[in-house]
Amino acid sequence: MLSRIGERWTMPACLQIDRGMAKFGDLRAALPGVSAKVLSETLTRLERDGLIGRKVIDSRPPSVEYHLTPLGEGLLQTLRVVVDWAVEYAPLIEEARRSYDDRNSLQLQPCGTAEQRQSCVLPRPHLAESRRH
Predict the structure, then answer these.
(1) Which three-class secondary structure state does DSSP give residue 133?
(2) Is the N end or the C end of the chain the one with fewer CB atoms within 10 Å?
(3) What's the predicted TM-score (pTM) here?
(4) Tens-of-pLDDT digits for all 133 residues of the chain?
(5) Residues 6+ apart with CB under 8 A from 93
(6) C-alpha distance from residue 59 to each of 28, 55, 94, 99 (Å)
(7) Which residues are registered as beta bridge partners of 63?
Protein backbone atom coordinates (compact mmCIF):
# COMPACT_ATOMS: atom_id res chain seq x y z
CA MET A 1 0.00 0.00 0.00
CA LEU A 2 2.86 2.38 0.73
CA SER A 3 4.11 1.99 -2.82
CA ARG A 4 0.65 2.93 -4.09
CA ILE A 5 0.64 6.10 -1.99
CA GLY A 6 4.03 7.01 -3.40
CA GLU A 7 3.04 6.60 -7.04
CA ARG A 8 3.26 9.80 -9.07
CA TRP A 9 -0.48 10.42 -9.62
CA THR A 10 -2.12 8.72 -6.62
CA MET A 11 -2.22 11.61 -4.17
CA PRO A 12 -2.85 14.36 -6.74
CA ALA A 13 -5.83 12.36 -8.05
CA CYS A 14 -7.19 11.74 -4.54
CA LEU A 15 -6.81 15.40 -3.62
CA GLN A 16 -8.66 16.50 -6.76
CA ILE A 17 -11.45 14.01 -6.13
CA ASP A 18 -11.67 15.31 -2.56
CA ARG A 19 -12.01 18.86 -3.92
CA GLY A 20 -15.02 17.82 -5.97
CA MET A 21 -13.35 17.32 -9.34
CA ALA A 22 -14.91 13.95 -9.80
CA LYS A 23 -15.29 13.40 -13.54
CA PHE A 24 -12.49 11.93 -15.60
CA GLY A 25 -12.19 14.99 -17.86
CA ASP A 26 -12.10 17.33 -14.85
CA LEU A 27 -9.40 15.24 -13.22
CA ARG A 28 -7.34 15.16 -16.38
CA ALA A 29 -7.60 18.93 -16.79
CA ALA A 30 -6.63 19.49 -13.14
CA LEU A 31 -3.57 17.25 -13.41
CA PRO A 32 -1.37 18.66 -16.15
CA GLY A 33 1.10 16.15 -17.48
CA VAL A 34 -0.91 13.00 -16.84
CA SER A 35 -1.97 11.03 -19.90
CA ALA A 36 -5.46 9.59 -20.19
CA LYS A 37 -4.02 6.07 -20.05
CA VAL A 38 -2.00 6.70 -16.87
CA LEU A 39 -4.89 8.48 -15.17
CA SER A 40 -7.24 5.63 -16.07
CA GLU A 41 -4.78 3.08 -14.69
CA THR A 42 -4.30 5.12 -11.51
CA LEU A 43 -8.05 5.43 -10.93
CA THR A 44 -8.52 1.71 -11.54
CA ARG A 45 -5.85 0.83 -8.96
CA LEU A 46 -7.35 3.28 -6.44
CA GLU A 47 -10.77 1.75 -6.96
CA ARG A 48 -9.35 -1.76 -6.60
CA ASP A 49 -7.67 -0.73 -3.33
CA GLY A 50 -10.97 0.65 -2.03
CA LEU A 51 -9.77 4.27 -1.84
CA ILE A 52 -12.19 5.62 -4.42
CA GLY A 53 -15.55 4.58 -5.80
CA ARG A 54 -17.07 5.31 -9.16
CA LYS A 55 -20.62 5.90 -10.28
CA VAL A 56 -21.66 5.60 -13.92
CA ILE A 57 -23.99 8.43 -14.90
CA ASP A 58 -26.62 7.51 -17.43
CA SER A 59 -26.17 10.36 -19.87
CA ARG A 60 -25.19 10.89 -23.49
CA PRO A 61 -22.31 10.33 -23.68
CA PRO A 62 -22.10 8.22 -20.53
CA SER A 63 -19.87 9.64 -17.84
CA VAL A 64 -18.32 8.45 -14.62
CA GLU A 65 -18.01 10.32 -11.35
CA TYR A 66 -15.43 9.36 -8.76
CA HIS A 67 -15.65 9.83 -5.01
CA LEU A 68 -13.47 9.04 -2.04
CA THR A 69 -14.54 6.09 0.04
CA PRO A 70 -14.21 6.15 3.83
CA LEU A 71 -10.83 4.43 3.33
CA GLY A 72 -9.73 7.18 0.96
CA GLU A 73 -10.94 9.90 3.30
CA GLY A 74 -9.02 8.26 6.15
CA LEU A 75 -5.88 8.13 4.03
CA LEU A 76 -6.12 11.82 3.15
CA GLN A 77 -6.79 12.73 6.77
CA THR A 78 -3.68 10.82 7.83
CA LEU A 79 -1.48 12.29 5.10
CA ARG A 80 -2.59 15.83 5.90
CA VAL A 81 -0.68 15.45 9.18
CA VAL A 82 2.47 14.69 7.17
CA VAL A 83 1.82 17.62 4.82
CA ASP A 84 1.26 19.96 7.76
CA TRP A 85 4.52 18.74 9.31
CA ALA A 86 6.40 19.33 6.04
CA VAL A 87 5.01 22.85 5.70
CA GLU A 88 5.76 23.72 9.33
CA TYR A 89 9.33 22.42 9.20
CA ALA A 90 10.22 23.40 5.63
CA PRO A 91 12.41 26.35 6.75
CA LEU A 92 14.39 24.11 9.12
CA ILE A 93 14.77 21.44 6.45
CA GLU A 94 16.05 24.03 3.97
CA GLU A 95 18.48 25.35 6.59
CA ALA A 96 19.73 21.81 7.28
CA ARG A 97 20.21 21.23 3.54
CA ARG A 98 22.16 24.47 3.12
CA SER A 99 24.33 23.64 6.10
CA TYR A 100 25.01 20.14 4.77
CA ASP A 101 25.80 21.48 1.30
CA ASP A 102 28.16 24.07 2.77
CA ARG A 103 30.00 21.42 4.80
CA ASN A 104 30.19 18.93 1.97
CA SER A 105 30.71 21.01 -1.15
CA LEU A 106 33.92 21.01 -3.11
CA GLN A 107 36.38 23.73 -2.27
CA LEU A 108 37.75 25.68 -5.20
CA GLN A 109 41.48 26.30 -5.12
CA PRO A 110 43.14 29.22 -6.92
CA CYS A 111 44.61 28.12 -10.23
CA GLY A 112 47.43 29.46 -12.29
CA THR A 113 49.07 27.35 -14.98
CA ALA A 114 47.34 24.76 -17.17
CA GLU A 115 48.87 21.97 -15.08
CA GLN A 116 47.54 23.56 -11.90
CA ARG A 117 44.04 23.97 -13.40
CA GLN A 118 43.76 20.19 -13.81
CA SER A 119 43.77 19.85 -10.03
CA CYS A 120 41.95 23.04 -9.06
CA VAL A 121 38.90 21.41 -7.50
CA LEU A 122 39.86 19.46 -4.42
CA PRO A 123 37.62 17.88 -1.82
CA ARG A 124 37.70 19.48 1.59
CA PRO A 125 40.30 17.80 3.80
CA HIS A 126 37.82 16.24 6.24
CA LEU A 127 36.04 14.51 3.34
CA ALA A 128 39.27 13.16 1.88
CA GLU A 129 40.28 11.80 5.29
CA SER A 130 36.91 10.09 5.83
CA ARG A 131 37.18 8.38 2.45
CA ARG A 132 40.49 6.78 3.47
CA HIS A 133 38.99 5.09 6.55
Answers:
(1) coil
(2) C
(3) 0.65
(4) 777 788 889 999 999 999 987 899 999 999 999 999 999 999 999 999 999 999 998 888 888 999 999 999 999 999 889 888 888 998 999 999 999 988 887 554 455 555 555 554 444 444 444 444 4
(5) 86
(6) 20, 12, 50, 58
(7) 57
